[in-house]
């Protein structure tokens, strides 16, 4: 039996350095569970490490991908496993999900409830968990909230759950005009990123900014946010760093999901998903744009399109 996987063996543009390689499927190691992958989404957190942006903590060769949905096909003898063959699971914190088979530690594997569809489950980790944890650390109740990159998947969940948690107001800042209607449909007030006067006025009335952009936008927001406010930086989609302006009264907080994972126990980890699944049942998620794994380059090209309306997904 063979397995195909998307490897990067050096850093660079994902289009240039990813390669679909096929090799014999090795025997399953003791203590692990083998999962046949069904589908995996494309997220910024999947692609950015391939460029070398995080070379201080991860290096090639690696199989790409951090989340996805699969079905258990084999359980090694003696594995401490509460799962069964044929069960749908998220094989997380393993050795790359952009491959036909993932061998994973069952302690970090997450069972998918029967009433959760494949379309929800395959993207049930990175964006939902990040949004949920941020709102747990920085509660939205009675706060005026601003979300940048508001057309992104994580931002969409931040908007929905901040409103559900009783935020006084929620504004979403967008770059591409086609995003405006989507943001408004989620219940937020949409603000054009190019409208600096409106952003400055908004910032002056804001309690918490959840920022995935950085760069000039973050600097403008920080320069006008009031005393006691917070900017939570959880991404850098602009590719530009930023610093606290001299006149700033707000505080900068960094959020990286991996920081929370370093100390979490398997029991607490499983409990997080017990709380996430009910929220995801009722959440609005963008439609999927499905690509066969052999067409991975087309999926990345679609991912890079400004204003795209779908979530690109690799199907195995």
Question: How would you describe what is shown here?
Answer:
There is one protein chain. This protein is α/β, with parallel strands linked by helices. The protein has 2 domains: 2-123 and 285-315, Quinone Oxidoreductase, Chain A, domain 1; 127-258, Rossmann fold. 28% of the residues lie in helices and 25% in strands. It is built from 11 helices and 16 strands. It has helices at 14-17, 44-47, 118-121, 126-137, 153-164, 180-185, 196-203, 215-224, 257-261, 266-282, 296-303, and strands spanning 2-8, 18-24, 33-41, 62-63, 69-75, 88-91, 101-104, 109-111, 144-147, 169-174, 189-192, 208-211, 230-233, 251-254, 288-292, 311-315. The strands form 3 sheets. Strands 3, 5, 6, 7, 8, 15 and 16 form a 7-stranded mixed β-sheet that branches. Strands 11-10-9-12-13-14 form a 6-stranded parallel β-sheet, with helices on both faces. Strands 2-1-4 form a 3-stranded antiparallel β-sheet. Strand 9, helix 5 and strand 10 (169-174) form a beta-alpha-beta unit. Helix 4 (126-137) packs across helix 5 (153-164) and helix 7 crosses helix 8 (215-224). The longest helix is centred in the last third of the chain and has 17 residues, at 266-282.
């Amino acid at each position: 039996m063979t397995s195909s996987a998307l490897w990067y063996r050096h850093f660079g543009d994902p289009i240039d350095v990813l390669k679909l390689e096929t090799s014999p499927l090795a025997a399953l190691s003791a203590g692990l569970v083998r999962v046949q992958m069904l589908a995996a989404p494309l997220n910024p957190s999947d692609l950015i490490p391939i460029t070398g942006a995080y070379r201080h903590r991860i290096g090639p060769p690696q199989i790409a991908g951090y989340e996805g949905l699969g079905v258990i096909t084999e359980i090694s003898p003696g594995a401490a496993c509460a799962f069964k063959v044929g069960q749908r699971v998220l094989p997380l914190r393993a050795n790359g999900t952009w491959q036909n088979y993932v061998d994973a530690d069952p302690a970090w594997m997450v069972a998918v409830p029967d009433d959760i569809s494949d379309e929800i489950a395959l993207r049930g980790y990175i964006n939902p968990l990040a949004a949920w944890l941020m709102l747990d650390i920085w509660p939205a109740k009675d706060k005026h909230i601003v979300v940048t990159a508001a057309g992104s998947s994580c931002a969409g969940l931040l908007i929905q759950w901040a409103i559900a948690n009783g935020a006084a107001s929620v504004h979403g800042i967008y770059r591409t005009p086609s995003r405006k209607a989507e943001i408004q449909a989620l219940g937020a007030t949409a603000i054009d990123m190019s409208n600096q006067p409106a952003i400055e006025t908004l910032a002056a009335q804001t309690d918490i900014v959840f920022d995935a952009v950085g760069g000039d936008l973050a600097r403008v927001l920080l320069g006008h946010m009031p005393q006691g406010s917070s900017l939570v930086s959880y991404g850098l989609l602009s590719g530009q760093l930023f610093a606290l302006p001299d006149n700033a009264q707000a505080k900068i907080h960094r959020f990286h999901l991996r920081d929370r994972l370093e100390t979490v126990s398997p029991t607490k980890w499983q409990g997080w998903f017990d709380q996430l699944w009910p929220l995801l049942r009722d959440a609005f998620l963008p439609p999927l744009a499905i690509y066969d794994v052999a067409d991975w380059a087309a999926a990345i090209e679609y991912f890079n399109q400004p204003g795209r309306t779908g979530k690109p997904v690799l199907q195995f």
